[in-house]
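Long-time lurker, first post.

We've been arguing in lab meeting about whether manganese (II) ion would sit comfortably in this protein at all. Half the group thinks yes, half thinks no, and nobody has a model to point at. So I'm putting the question to the forum: if I give you the sequence and the SMILES, can you give me back a predicted structure of the complex? Inputs are below. Any interpretation is welcome too.
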Amino acid sequence: MLKEHIEKDSVIRLISHNDADGISAAAVIANALKEEDVQFHTTIIPRLKEDMVNQLRSEKYDLFIFSDMGSPFIKEFNTYKHDVIVADHHQVNDTEAESNVVHINPHLFGIDGSKDLCGAGSAYLAVRDLDKKHLAHFALIGAFGDMQGQGGFTGVNSTILGDAMESGVVEIHEGLKIVSKASEPIFKSLAYTFSPPLPGISGDLEGAQEFLEKRGLSYGIKFTDLEDEEKDLLKDALIEINPDIFGDCYTVPKEVPLLRDLEEYSYILDACGKNKKQGLGLSIALGEKDQALDAALRLQRQYRDQIVRGLEWIKREGAQQLNAIQYLYSEDKVLKSVMGTIASIGLSVELLDNSKPVIGLSRLHRDIKISGRTTREMVDRGVNLGKALQDSSNNFNGTGGGHDIAAGAMIPYEAKDNFLHLVDEMVEYQLNND
Ligand SMILES: [Mn+2]
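Top reply:
Settle the argument with this. Predicted structure of the protein with manganese (II) ion, as tokens:
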């Protein structure tokens, strides 16, 4: 379908999600279309809602592409007069796509969309056979953004890694998996490394400084400026905290240093999205450098400070406990903006109890935005947050869904306490009935 539209010189409408995965998904498609000299119009949004689906219906484009979103709306797209491609990886319903709709989603093939293929990966599959294997790294950046690559790539992701290696765009080498090795003083590199988590150091600037001082390492210089002996000393000390800190690093050799590491690239896109500068993220992925990169770096610094502030808050206040879940609630502007992220990191650096899913709540006027996160172990024990948040939010006229391990919802403010209790009951039920 895409090939036909490219040949017909169609004008294409691209709609994607505003997180690192969604921006990477847009980057795959936009780069592919740019290379084919196709005209397209991209919009990156926080979530796809029914009113937008209905409003797009009347726009005059030949083809719509939805990436990292769209699967819940196949029924609506079936009634569009246009052609539609949906490249998503979130949970699906049972509506089958009509002939005007191409639906790419790992769940349709029994593949786990929370670990084996991300939205950018689905988008990559849409363009892969148009001779676009050199764009495979964007699929992997999306996977990192979706927390899918951290323990090594599996499933379709590893097939895509194969494409990236084969086309020479990505290289793998062993090293310390700490961030900003060449751009920040070492104590910040350590404190801003959230994956793999370094308990006592990740998100803790003072903890990171103490750790380095105790070992006689200067904390104020960059990792790349350390002597080889010091690097070895640091490596051994970090491996004692978390052996995963040393391992495969994935790089794009042709990229500028700031964007060379795939995982760090995903953090830059994440920082752009979280600060409502998704256009900046996409333009970087389309090749803008200089001022665009400076602006992105500023956003990243600011975003990391916000995460550290959020983690300090969790350390100070802890989470509110229910039977089967725990929750975080804040009306603070900064904390609200990083709620989902600090919920994930709080679990991984063990600031939060790993045996209970965490529900982060951020008040937005009359609504509450919910971010739910849990661990792979809890999913194996039966927890499905996507289902719990979908069913419980629907019960209070809200909307929700996502993955078993990470999900989101929006509910009216008044429903907050009842909603939390319902989610608590549902998770308890999932655990007892698996
Ligand atoms: Mn995604």
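For your lab meeting: Residues 99 and 156 are 25 Å apart (CA to CA). The mean pLDDT is 95. Whichever side wins, do check it experimentally.
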